[in-house]
Amino acid sequence: MNRFKVLALYKFADFKDCAALKPELALFCCARGIRGTFILAPEGINGTVAGTPTAIDELMDWFETASLWAGRLAGAEAKFSSATEMPFLRMKVRLKPEIVTLRAPEADPSKLVGTHVEAQDWNRLISRNDVTLIDTRNDYEVKLGTFSNARDPATQSFTEFKDYVAKLDPAQHPKVAMFCTGGIRCEKASAYMLQQGFKEVFHLKGGILKYLESVPETESRFNGECFVFDERVSVVHGLAEGEAVLCRGCRNPMRPNEAVGSLCAACAEAAPAGASERERQMELARARGEAHLGDDAAATAARNKAAKLARRKQSVD
Question: Which residues form the Rhodanese domain (predicted)?
């Protein structure tokens, strides 16, 4: 049973007074048990939160009627999904210079942006031979799933996307189509590429999430699972929770058959001598319902590292 409703929302707009918006938004969400993260910046709002269906519906109504918010989110990109368990630990409202970090002031989607393509029209666009298809997400996301024939910029953070674009010749790529998880990164990337001289730039409206929600699986050009930045780890068609798990070491996503205990192959290989055997014994103890000496310490260390890495990934997304 899906007990929680998940909202992913963003909009590029004039939010120069974002500091004044933070307190009421945090208070409203916390009072209703909503958890997740909203980022406010002079260029707009971005975030994913979860709560009971009633709480999320109340939040959307409040955005329309609260004095400081009324009208600000008209036309915002908002997507809803569900989760069986609460996918976030706490509620955070953060003030940042950008809602998605590119560090390219010339990229302003509120002034110049590429052409939105609806999910139902995406397959037809990316089937064209004259279109260069680019995945604007980071390498660990692309590894889990992407569209057929998409180029992987092999970035570890969105700021590195500028370096990838610098290697492309606009004359050789007159038509570019881009996509990301929810639409925000490729929207800003489209603004940047237009500024760099690319003639026609398209981006998937609502991102992969909207595509997986709208396009029948039998017609899908997306292979694998879509990584999401919460405890669900990944989603598949219909926005159902996927099978991907997180490595307890590096917190990168992996498929269950790639796991070595609760680590990815790279972390397992890099683990200190005896760590793999200790992990195996801990897993056996948990399977028997028994405590294992060192289990609490190991779990605490893993959680602390996981939280740190998760914060880092969210800050660059």
Answer: 127-220
Query: Quick check: 190 and 95 in contact, CB under 8 A?
Result: no
Domain architecture of the chain: domains with CATH: 4-95 (3.30.70.100), 110-271 (3.40.250.10), 273-315 (no CATH)
- Three-class DSSP category at 262: coil
Tell me the Ramachandran region of residue 134: left when phi exceeds 0, alpha when psi lies from -120 to 50, beta otherwise.
beta
Residue in 77, 117, 300 with CA at minimum distance from that of residue 221: 117
Residues 82-136 have pLDDT tens digits of: 999 999 999 999 999 999 999 999 999 999 999 999 999 999 999 999 999 999 9
The three state secondary structure string of 225-252 is CEECCCCCCEECHHHCECCCEECCCCCC
Tokens of 143: 């590894």
CA proximity to 314, closest of 144, 104, 88: 88
pLDDT per position as a tens digit, 278-296: 556 656 665 565 544 444 4
Q: Are 26 and 62 in contact (CB under 8 A)?
A: no
Please say whether the beta carbons of 134 and 216 come within 8 A.
Answer: no
Question: What are the φ/ψ torsions at residue 302 (nearest 5 degrees)?
Answer: -65, -40
Place of tokens 């400081």: 68
* C-beta separation of 232 from 241 below 8 A: yes
49: left (phi over 0), alpha (psi -120 to 50) or beta: beta
Q: What is the pTM of this model?
A: 0.81
Which residues face 190 on adjacent strands? none
